[in-house]
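Protocol step 4 of 6: structure prediction from sequence.
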Amino acid sequence: MKNRANSGIRFVQVKGTHRQIGQQIGEACRDQVQLSVENARKLLGDAYDELQLTWEGARIQSRKYLPFAQERFPQYVDEIMGIAEGANIPFDDLAVLNVMEAVTSDALHLDKCTSLAVNEEYTADGNVLVAHNEDWLPEDEACVYVVHATPDGEPPFLGMTYGGLLPNIGFNACGIAQCCDSVYPNDSRIGIPRLVVSRAVLAATTLEQAIRATVSPHRAAGYNHLLAHESGELYNVEVSARSFAILHGTAGYVVHTNFYLDRKMQAIEYEPDELIGTRVRYYRALRLLLKNTNHTVKSLQVIQRDHMNYPNAICNHPEENLKPLDRQKTINALVIDLEARCMHIALGNPCTNAYHTFHL
């Protein structure tokens, strides 16, 4: 196991069984894992009036999801167990982190992530590029790290994550990249947690396997999974607990934020009138993307820094005096070059922080 910092971003190399990988992550990123649990505890405490949920109550609720994850993806439950062991954190606490969206009934409404991808039709050098702004609670910016993992029996991958969360945003050695955007269906249920489902995508060796993973039976809810393959195939797979839509990037690009694009999926969207900002951001990102047919890593980074509709922009900045559940900002921005097998990532807002490069 190797562990080093790159201008403030911790980088961890791990390999072995899923339990061993988790243990190595937990040991190397113990401070980040422990801090993320403290942040989550404080969040639930501050939001008690709205959620009526204690930390112990969240632990009880999260246990209901584990049998579904254990049955379908026991290897990733092992990873969570390993992280808990390595970080000296009770497993039940990390279970809460990995089921947080479900146990809070999506009250976080973190509706400001932005993802996009372009293939050879829209890039200067013919490469496939994928970009993602990760928006989350400001306190967890200090918990971000990049992991290079070589799991036994699965392709190596390079992923971004934070605290005790399973990595799910990144790409693997088979040329498959994934970004996840929260969406809000009204058919959520107890089942396989979204983070576990999306972690399975990084183990896919083909694009079909990746898509099949996103729609695993007995899932609790769903993300939008923006998937890109080194061949230039691009997809948005919009998922809920009981339904899904597969949208192909036939024109050579895909964009997604935090609302459903497919009309069938829009019919089951929860409180769409609360998601106006994410629609503004989607159309802004789409317009900026289509202004250029020769994109590079640098041009996508320019889009990631955009401040139209500030502070609720693509580069999202925190607002003062908001309720605990509504506080969020861009905690990192990343661009993946699938041909070069590398990730360029800026910690925090990309308008004020430099990008640094990690290779698979």
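Step 5 (inspection) to follow. Confidence is low (pLDDT under 50) at residues 2-6.
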